[in-house]
Write a structure and sequence with these properties.
- The chain has helices at residues 2-8, 21-24, 98-109, 130-141, 153-164, 236-247, 275-281, 291-304, 311-318; strands spanning 43-47, 55-61, 66-72, 78-82, 85-89, 94-96, 113-118, 127-128, 146-150, 177-179, 184-187, 190-196, 205-209, 212-216, 254-257, 272-274.
- The chain is α+β, with helices and mostly antiparallel strands.
- It has one domain: Metallo-beta-lactamase, Chain A, CATH 3.60.15.
- The chain has a seven-stranded mixed beta sheet with strand order 1-2-3-4-7-9-10, with helices on one face.
- The chain binds glutathione (GSH) and fe (ii) ion.
- Residues 26, 28-29, 64, 124-125, 217, 224, 227-228, 259, 261, 301, 305, 308-310 line the site of glutathione.
- Residues 26, 28-29, 64, 124-125, 217, 224, 227-228, 259, 261, 301, 305, 308-310 line the site of glutathione (GSH).
- Keywords: Hydrolase, Metal-binding.
- Residues 9-22, 38-48 have a biased composition (Polar residues).
- Pfam families: Lactamase_B.
Length: 345
């Protein structure tokens, strides 16, 4: 935990990257992807739905290892988009929209009407395209989708708003819908259920739609296990409980993950794993692993992880729901970056 907390602390200097050989090339970073280099277009696959099930298009954004989803009713073609990414280059500060435009193209090509843009949490590793997509979709389909997130986002906004000096007026009211725990909502004729799955962050939600849960950053692929819990408000025991909640779902339910960081032995990112497979194979939560072991394992892992590359920019941007910082008197839109200063200062 020390790493991330020091990266977020205004006082403590940190190198951000440790010299520990385990994390010199962190295993969570896609093995064949170099930092800061866009890797061409996102890949997508569409799963054909069973009866009564949604059509799911998973679109992998390789620079941040994020899975974005388009979930649609195959008959009446209403849809939601989950966790869309805005491209951002921390060297030039350029915000670009190739990944989000790909989602727009897919919705257009399939004739979907997007009613919702759903965030599983305020991401700390990439910028959200929610606000951009809401305005583009309004133009594309003549109707504005609602941006939804968990009801506890207010405390996350306040915490990071204060830390980064984001004026409250830039984050208040930026989300259209704050979901209550277990709230049921409609995506056309489909039902979605907002499941509170805390641990990675306190506000974190999963969305159940048919026999699918879009679990964001709670459980990852079986060879990675689970998400880190060292963000402020994160909790390893809470993540354990959230994982147990997912494992009590029927065996056939598909758990669609928020990220994948394929290790060297695996060439492709994998969007979903069934509940049954998690119970048999997930290295952190499979049958036989006890809570104490999980807590010990997760604690060790979190200590070894460096802060996400886009931590500060992501948090400042995402508590605004993906809206741009307002222009200052010089016409500039600014974000704050804490300096890392050593003892010499
Ligand atoms: N290398 C990534 C790190 C991303 C990261 O920390 N991912 C979080 C989810 S937002 C996580 O849970 N990682 C778990 C792990 O790496 O084991 C970056 O710099 O952005
Ligand atoms: Fe995350």
């Amino acid at each position: 935990m020390a790493n991330l907390h020091s990266a977020l602390s205004p006082k403590t200097p940190t190198s951000g990257r440790k010299t520990n050989p385990i994390i010199q090339r962190p295993s969570y970073f896609p093995a064949k992807i170099a930092r800061n280099k866009p890797q061409g277009q996102a890949k997508y696959t569409t799963a054909s739905p069973g009866p009564g099930e949604p059509t799911i298009t998973s679109v992998f954004e390789p620079v941040t290892g994020t899975f974005q989803y388009i979930v649609a009713d195959p008959t009446i073609k209403t849809a939601c988009i989950i966790d869309p990414v805005l491209d951002y280059d921390p060297v030039t500060q350029a915000l670009t929209t190739a990944s989000a435009d790909r989602l727009l193209d897919l919705t257009k090509k399939n004739g979907y009407r997007v009613d919702w843009i759903l965030e599983t949490h305020a991401h700390a590793d990439h910028l959200t395209a929610a606000s951009y997509l809401r305005s583009q979709l309004e133009k594309q389909q003549g109707h504005q989708p609602s941006v939804g997130i968990g009801k506890r986002i207010g405390m996350v906004q306040e915490r990071f708003g204060k830390r980064y000096g984001v004026p409250a007026k830039e984050y208040e009211g930026v989300f259209d819908k704050l979901f209550d725990d277990d709230e049921v909502f409609e995506i056309g004729e489909m039902k979605g259920v907002a499941m509170h799955l805390p641990g990675h962050t306190p506000d974190h939600l999963g969305y159940r739609i048919g026999d699918n849960v879009f679990c964001g950053d709670s459980v990852f692929h079986v060879d990675i296990g689970t998400a880190r819990c060292d963000f402020p408000g994160g909790s390893i025991p809470a993540l354990w409980q959230s994982a147990q909640r997912l494992l009590t779902l029927p065996d056939n339910v598909k758990i669609w993950t928020g990220h994948d960081y394929p290790p060297d032995e695996r060439s492709e990112p994998v969007p979903w794993v069934s509940v049954k497979q998690h119970k048999e194979l997930n290295k952190h939560i499979k049958k036989g692993i006890k809570e104490e072991e999980f807590v010990a394992m997760r604690t060790e892992r979190d200590k070894a992880l460096a802060a996400p590359r886009l931590l500060h920019q992501s948090l400042q941007f995402n508590i605004r729901g993906g809206k741009l910082p307002e222009e200052n008197e010089s016409g500039l839109r600014l974000m704050h970056l804490p300096l890392k200063v050593g003892e010499v200062w």
